[in-house]
């Protein structure tokens, strides 16, 4: 066999092997493309449907599992609760809202939480959501072990929550509840999942109240607890005026240099406070001196600005310690410095007026407000005190009409009164339940009406409060001695907290699954 033949044969074999390798490479490429395409289809189908969000576990808390949709529900519930809390405290003030709330214009994951370098707003609401879920997991587990189930009334409340949301969906222009839920709580939130989460909340809430109510205490335990904590439980009436020892920077708009170090400012604050104390001989001289310090401010009200009525636990420690001294008597005045580690230092001029041990009856009832609006004021061509008197007459008349409507009912009583408050067009603000109310829990005029010794169950009347309007009021009855109820409440809270802490020990481990992290990125959770 010639060398040329052998060479030709080897060349053909090499070509064939090369072609085979190319076909294999092509087939592998095609297979990879097909597999990738199938995976993409599966990915789109999975994450484009509800299955991933409400069919997979996002996190485990103890032995309980929560889906991505469950987490989303708690995340947005935590956000809405926080937003409502901030709004109720600060209104719509842009300064507060922009500082205390994240912007909805960008992802919460890209916005630092207040004063933090390591935490974002997404982290904050995620932690809040997880804490909610931990608490509910522990409470629902305890409820299940005790055989606790929702009452028919609670089940009806759950149904009402769902139907109210359905009505909101229709009002917002959504064709069905599922679309509205998806928009509100994120993908995967269906009516079924929403109802399950609401039921879980109701079980946790109602069982928590049942457990709290189950703790009982003897009269001696209640009395001993009050005596031991009297300094914190008692109510103090006093006056206070403060002088700041904060460093002062120069105001460029003035000719003088106001610069002052913290030490210099503290020394001045102390001297000013001592001068104030030296000038006080009685309560009126206290008010006069405070007014003199603010004579350039036409709106300053020395009485309102210095008056305090507070429970001991709400007063800063250095002032409370002085007020609670057994030797304290009406009219005593003292200069009190903040704690040594306080920054900045303050000096307070404090006048003691009264200490109340809460030995009076707590009361219950209900009230609603009749008020005026801008249209009413424009329709009355008066000014100043004459306008105020005319508006009072107007709200008094409207409130009396509501009282007359109640007196005309065939069936009277608490439920009938509450329904009338809800139905009456003259009641312009949310009506309020008065439960175990103390003397200082309500505005003075309202408190005086409810705590009148002549008051009896079923009494209905009207009470006018300047700057508010006229209240329509209903008296339910006396609940007991306020101090005893307060002491019992603290004991019960202490016992319940200890019980709940013990339950939570079994739900400390939170195992976040990879699905939760992926879902957050895919849905841009949190803005």
Description:
There is one protein chain. The protein is an alpha+beta fold and 527 residues long. It has 4 domains: 3-48; 58-214, Triger factor/SurA peptide-binding fold; 235-356, Roll (Chitinase A, domain 3); 361-484, Chitinase A, domain 3 (Roll), CATH 3.10.50. It is built from 20 helices and 11 strands. The chain has helices spanning 3-48, 51-55, 68-90, 94-100, 121-145, 152-171, 177-185, 191-213, 219-228, 230-233, 262-279, 283-293, 302-306, 317-323, 374-378, 384-407, 414-423, 444-450, 482-504, 514-523, and strands at 57-61, 64-67, 235-244, 307-311, 333-337, 346-356, 361-370, 432-437, 460-465, 469-481, 510-512. The chain has a 4-stranded antiparallel beta sheet with strand order 4-3-6-5. The protein has a 4-stranded antiparallel beta sheet with strand order 8-7-10-9. It has a 3-stranded antiparallel beta sheet with strand order 2-1-11. Strand 9 and strand 10 form a beta hairpin. The N and C termini lie far apart (80 Å).
Helix content: 55-70%
| Overall mean pLDDT | 86
CATH class of the largest domain: Mainly Alpha
Q: What's the arrangement of strands in the largest beta sheet?
A: 4-3-6-5
CATH overall fold name of the largest domain: Triger factor/SurA peptide-binding fold
Structural class: alpha+beta
What is the overall silhouette?
globular
The count of domains is 4
Intertermini distance: 80 Å
* Residue windows where pLDDT falls under 50 for at least 5 positions: 24-47
Proportion of residues in β-strands? 5-15%
Give the number of helices. 20
């Amino acid at each position: 066999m010639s060398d040329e033949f052998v060479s030709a044969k080897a060349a053909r074999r090499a070509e064939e092997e090369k072609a085979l390798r190319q076909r294999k490479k092509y087939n592998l490429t095609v297979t990879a493309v097909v597999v990738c395409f199938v995976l993409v289809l599966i990915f789109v189908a999975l994450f484009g449907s509800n299955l991933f969000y409400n069919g997979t576990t996002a996190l485990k808390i103890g032995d309980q599992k929560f889906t991505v949709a469950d987490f989303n529900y708690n995340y947005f519930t935590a956000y809405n609760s926080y937003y409502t809390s901030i709004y109720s405290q600060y209104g719509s003030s842009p300064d507060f809202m922009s500082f205390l709330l994240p912007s909805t214009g960008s992802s919460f994951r890209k916005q630092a939480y207040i004063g933090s370098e390591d935490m974002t707003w997404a982290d904050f609401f995620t932690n809040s959501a997880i804490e909610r879920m931990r608490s509910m997991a522990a409470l629902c587990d305890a409820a299940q072990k005790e055989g606790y189930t929702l009452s028919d009334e609670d089940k009806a409340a759950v149904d009402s929550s769902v139907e109210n949301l359905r009505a909101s969906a229709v009002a917002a222009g959504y064709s069905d509840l599922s679309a509205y839920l998806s928009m509100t709580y994120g993908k995967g939130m269906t009516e079924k999942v929403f109802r399950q989460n609401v039921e879980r909340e109701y079980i946790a809430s109602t069982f928590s109240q049942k457990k709290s109510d189950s703790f009982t205490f003897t009269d001696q335990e209640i009395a001993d607890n009050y005596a031991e904590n009297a300094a914190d439980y008692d109510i103090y009436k006093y006056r206070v005026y403060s002088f700041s020892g904060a460093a002062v920077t120069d105001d460029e708009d003035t000719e003088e240099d106001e610069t002052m170090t913290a030490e210099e400012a503290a020394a001045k604050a102390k001297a000013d406070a001592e001068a104030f104390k030296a000038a006080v001989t009685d309560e009126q001289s206290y008010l006069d001196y405070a007014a003199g310090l603010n004579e350039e401010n036409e709106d300053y009200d020395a009485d309102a600005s210095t008056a305090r009525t507070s429970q001991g636990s709400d007063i800063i420690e250095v002032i409370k310690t002085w007020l609670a001294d057994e030797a304290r008597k009406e009219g005593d005045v003292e200069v009190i410095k903040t704690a040594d580690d306080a920054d900045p230092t303050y000096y307070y001029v404090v006048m003691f007026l009264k200490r109340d041990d809460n030995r009076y009856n707590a009361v219950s009832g209900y009230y609603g407000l009749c008020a005026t609006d801008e249209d009413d004021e424009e329709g009355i061509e008066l000014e100043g005190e004459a306008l105020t008197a005319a508006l009072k007459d107007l709200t008094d008349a409207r409130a009396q009409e509501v009282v007359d409507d109640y007196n005309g009912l065939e069936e009277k009583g608490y439920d009938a009164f509450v329904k009338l408050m809800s139905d009456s067009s003259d009641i312009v603000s949310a009506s309020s339940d008065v439960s175990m109310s103390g003397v200082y829990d309500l505005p003075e005029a309202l408190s005086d009406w409810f705590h009148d010794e002549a008051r009896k169950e079923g009494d209905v009347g009207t009470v006018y409060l300047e700057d508010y309007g006229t209240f329509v009021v209903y008296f339910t009855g006396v609940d007991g001695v306020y101090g005893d109820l307060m002491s019992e409440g603290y004991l019960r809270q202490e016992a319940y907290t200890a019980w709940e802490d013990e339950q939570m020990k079994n739900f400390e481990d939170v195992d976040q699954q990879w699905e939760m992290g992926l879902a957050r990125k895919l849905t841009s959770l949190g803005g």
